[in-house]
Specification:
Chain lengths: ~350, ~350, ~350, ~350
């Protein structure tokens, strides 16, 4: 039985709570806290046996907490993870795990010393189309990598520019550190580290001091390219991730829900070239990535295996984001709103 | 009756010939020539009344030629256009009209002096989905431009690296000057001139001294971005062009044939945001862009109107291509072929 | 302010309750009852000010109930509607409004005498794609009707054969009276009354005494045909409705959610024939048909207008269903389950 | 080397000629004839070494003809096949092989006596999506058959009602014997023989004495149903064939070209039901069914194997068509044309 404490009881914290409480898991929510106590109380009310902790230290001090889920605004993610490690807790911290890579400095080593597992919640890795694409790629199905191309975006909502994500001191950045960091993390799974970071980060529409669009052109040491775009002015929700290899292409579309049915298409070039052999797999129905990610976390706790999505992964992805933020020529003046 | 001479009787020249011979047009092919005389003879055989000219000068000297179609390899496009103008002929020259913008220097002025119309064959402008998108955009349907995103590519064919397009002295470059120049030309229709040219041009797969992929990140003076990718390692033929405005999005997919049914989708944001109003138009059946472009050319001859696709347009698009070619860090080593 | 009582607090009753409680409506749930009192209590708990009535007569006796929503199993729909009319209440009764057309005999007249409005919940009429299709058709956009073709189905769920719908005394029938009645109702909107009813009703998979598939071939007086299939062995949820006119075709796909994005496509034949002009409208996002239907009901109460979906409509649709049930050669032996 | 004579040099005959002349085949066109001699001459001109026979008897008398392809109007198919058999020739006769099943009486026996192979050109069986679907079905992938549902149609063309297909003495019928017979033939591959034939055959739009729509409801001995619609008022070209088994569904869409990319989707139900496992295969590019069918024919000649598409198959499919034609209540008055 894994006993869990949750810090941060917003949308994501509540979703994590629902997942861990599923009958399939030997897992139980024992404590919750939130800067807005009412949110913690509301979550606890839905989970019999869950106490409301007065503050994060009180939660971390509880001996009956084995695993801490950190689901706060970005500014608190790294610090709370550090404290949880110090208290000897395993940690599942939401992406991007920090506002900047420096905040994660030394954290992986501290976790190793403390003998605890820390996983970063890059849940997109657990989407079945992406998982199968990674497996196919790793097995050589499309040969060596040529380049990646990805588009990820949503259309915001009324008042989006007044949400906490628009406040850089809380979020560390805008669209690029929010949805874009998923693209960077996924791209690393195919291309490894990116030596070159070019592109353009800018604010085109939302009147806020963080970017609403990130266009990236990354290169790894072998010359493979990642051409990525993350946007919160996409208007029509979109997720598209394309992996081009010497011998074919893997294309992932959709994430379920308003992003459309999740689908993987495998285009395999034939020796005579021309139209490729084309096979698709669709994943209709509910998004189980959160459940599968949690199952993986429990498995790592049980077996000591390294989780998919480490602190090093988060640090490397944030490194890319931070370098992109430092690029010159940033657009800061959004178009005039109607 | 417009009497036409064709220089260059390959695939494109033959296609132009078929179009001008359609009953709907008051138009007739009177002369053809080609560096490979057999090709000119074969074309002439299909067009009763068409003579084979011994060489380009012989063709240009004919008083019964009103309009010259220049459909040669890129190295000869600009020079022949200049000669045709000097001979007082109207000209329809295939894109990109030259290998580099310098080759077009002064040509527009010469045409004006000679009182002839010169049109560059940017036939994509005449695809109905793109034309309607441009009309909607011009009428303000999606508000001011935020950015453009486009992908255009094919998968080559066996021996592609040994075709004339792979020889820079003939082609002036690879994928970017071939398919990519269409994207740049179309992008100019929405964004105007691009002050900034960044990106990456490289050879990833085909063992040839020109690029097989061009990734562009362009910016105009108002900060609108064009994020464009042209590829001949696309594996699955693809044309996708997306125009993001403040109030909505225009998306063009397909060009018919192996590029899929041509479709325009108009996403209009509602004041309350959320999922946009979504309307699509499909254009199944044959590709009539060549026919419509030729009709437009005849109309310009009749009315003196400025054609869509001028020498200035070609020069501006080639300027972008040339600047992209000059970017540092070009990849030249293709991946090892199986 | 319209004060509403709900009889039958299952899934549909609860959905109706949520809708009427939306702030946009001048409407309030004042009483609920259910054969399982706990269900009524649970519903009332979510709607402040809602009382739990001891039984249907107690609910109908309340002077503060203006409108009764009848959302019970099929066996009780007609009888409760009759009683509600007798008590002077307006009624919104769920489709199919009865198990058989005889149960509705005289009811419309009783409602007229009582001066109350009775609407049957054929909510599909309020799906935007279907509404727009009906409007286009009524305006002559596709000319006179040739035929209709429709497919509607889902894949059931574990234990489906033990749910109340599988008990003919409660349901009056299987798939045909459940989803199929929507198809018949929609078909009547385009074709009017069906003089001929042919087809096949059968039990193919689910081990239950009602049919799981209905194949219908209907004809109206002018020779227009409706070729309809309703299935609960469709495996992949599907809604497709096609209207063929002399001058074009209207095609509706999807109903949102697991049925896919709702879309209307209008194919208009051109005088020269060949590929039609093709325009589509998509309706992503939530299903608002229930809300729009309720708004329409309130509008009918306010204006005295005849509602879309009358008792006569229900009787006519049930007439078709009943005639289909009487067709000889019914398959009753499902395939052997694995 | 197989030496081939073609009787009937229209569209289909010419297509067969092109296929057999492909370098891959040890096959040669040696003679051609047509009621319109010019058509035979035109075909012969494209096939060096091909003689023009004065008439069918002259062609059949040639000792250097091993295989006769009969590609005439329907009225001549059976008679010519009978004569070719009598002359000891192998035969590839186009579907439907006759105007009515009676015309085929005894033919299979005659072929056996003569020791020749006769194959009927049901080329749809050789479309890769249909072939794979049949293989999956035969291997038990979707369990025992519940029912089939198919739609096949095109939108005609100007003057369609004046083509030979509209003359019953030449064609034997309209849409049902033309495209519909493919559906019946394919349906037999999954369901075997159909004991019951119901449905509706009618003329809805085209002013011609043969039907333009056939709606079929067939049943085999085990109660499996085929719900089929063939139409030449489909307006948008469509091919859709769906096979529902106890454990899943096979869906074939498209035939290439104007019918859309050919695709097979396999929906496999999971033990817990809900959304099925979904895998698709696409077949872009050219339609190779004619080539694959011819390769199969040559293989049957070489090995003595029974071809896919026998005279018995044609007779059984025509039996269904003929019974459908005999159904009462046929609509003969098309809607008034605009």
């Amino acid at each position: 039985m894994t006993r869990v404490g949750i810090i941060g009881c917003g949308l994501i914290g509540a979703k994590r709570a629902r997942v861990l409480a599923e009958a399939r898991f030997e897992s139980r929510l024992v404590a919750a806290c939130d800067v807005a106590r009412a949110r913690a109380e509301s979550l606890a009310a839905q989970h019999p046996g869950c106490a409301v902790a007065a503050d994060t230290e009180a939660l971390l001090a509880r001996p009956d907490v084995d695993l801490v889920i950190v689901a706060t605004t970005h500014d608190a993610l790294a610090g709370l993870t550090r404290r949880a490690i110090a208290c000897g807790k395993h940690v599942l911290v939401e992406k991007p795990a920090a506002r900047a890579p420096e905040e994660l400095q030394g954290l992986a080593a501290e976790a190793r010393s403390a003998g605890v597992v820390v996983k970063v919640g890059f849940n997109h890795r657990f989407h079945p189309a992406l998982r199968r694409a990674q497996d196919l790629f790793d097995s050589g199905a499309v040969g060596p990598l040529l380049y990646l191309r990805a588009r990820y975006g949503h259309g915001g909502r009324l008042g989006y520019e007044r949400e906490w994500r628009a406040r850089p001191e809380l979020s560390g950045g805008g669209e690029l550190i929010d949805q874009g960091v998923h693209l960077v993390d996924l791209a690393r799974g195919f291309a490894g580290e990116f030596a070159d970071v070019a592109g353009h980060v800018g604010t085109f529409f939302w009147d806020m001091p963080v970017e609403d669009n990130g266009f990236l052109l990354l290169k790894n040491a072998t010359g493979a390219v990642a051409f990525l775009h993350a946007s919160c002015t996409e208007w029509k929700n979109l997720f598209s991730f394309e992996v081009f290899g010497r011998d074919g292409k893997l294309q992932i579309d959709g994430l379920g829900g308003s992003y459309g049915v999740e689908r993987l298409t495998f285009y395999r070039m034939r020796p005579e070239m021309g139209p490729p052999e084309t096979t698709s797999w669709e994943y209709p129905g509910e998004d189980h990535s959160w459940r599968d990610e949690y199952a993986h976390m429990l498995d790592c706790l049980a077996t000591g295996r390294t989780p998919l999505g480490t602190l090093d992964d988060a640090q490397a992805a944030l490194e890319v984001v931070t370098r992109a933020y430092a690029l010159p020529g940033r657009r800061t003046a959004p178009v005039e709103r109607a």
